[in-house]
Amino acid sequence: KTFCPPGGKRMVFFLDDMAMPVVNTWGDQVTMELARQLIEMSGFYFLDKDKRGDFKIIELLEYIGAMGHPGGGRNDIPNRAKSKFFSFNMVLPSTVSVDSIYGSILRARFTAKAGAKEPVMVLSKKLTTATIDIWDKIKRSLLPTPQRFHYIFNMRELSRVFQGILDTPMSALGSESLLVSLWKHEVTRVFADKLARERDKEFVDKVAQEFCEQHFGEDLAEANRETRWWADFQREAKEDPDTGEELPADKIYEPIQSMEFVREKAYAFLQKFNDAFP
Questions:
Q1: Residue 145 half-sphere exposure, CB side, CA atoms within 13 Å?
Q2: Fewer CB under 10 Å: which end of the chain, C or N?
Q3: 10 Å Cβ neighbour count for 142?
Q4: Residue 12 has what DSSP assignment?
């Protein structure tokens, strides 16, 4: 009647998205009540006919849980379940801290030693503040709802914007205009692609253009009013001079030649995949 991990070891259960179970008519979350019983009583009652009423002990277990803040389509969990945990709230770092983190990374990337030109180095110092301003306005304006519960903008979004910038070779950033073009593309890719409504995507475009003018000046903003797309699959495959085998193409993140060229490349990759896996 007693169950435990093998070898006298302890097992840690991680309960992710604890607020996800549906709330029934009586305000209960059945899944959470079962979890609470396991934590509180260290077991369940047998339901087998010949053992009904006997208690099944489950020991040497520890529990860690995680959940988002209630609201915007996310439930709270019952207080009885909450009382079984030591709770602490993880908040986003301050704007100053975020600026310090990503500003330091960008300053280390955009240097003369790395091949960055002086105007590009000067402009790169404005990227962090511009991105944080957009992130802050979008997460305050596009709040999650039960229909759009995925409208969550946290540090991951900031990281993705800067990751795209950092993954771009310095040879592709030969001018200030190209750097602003890359920044605007990354902002649109990260913040607008996850949105469900066209008007929300238009809002992101408007905000990006607004902060582009504010941080980079009207000339650069006007030159990049139309978002120019970037991709890393435009290079042609190479051939090994010794064996004649086809080598993978270099993945260089750079502005697209044209939408038609990218479309042809995408269809070519799709055809190649279908031929390899019919």
A1: 7
A2: C
A3: 20
A4: E
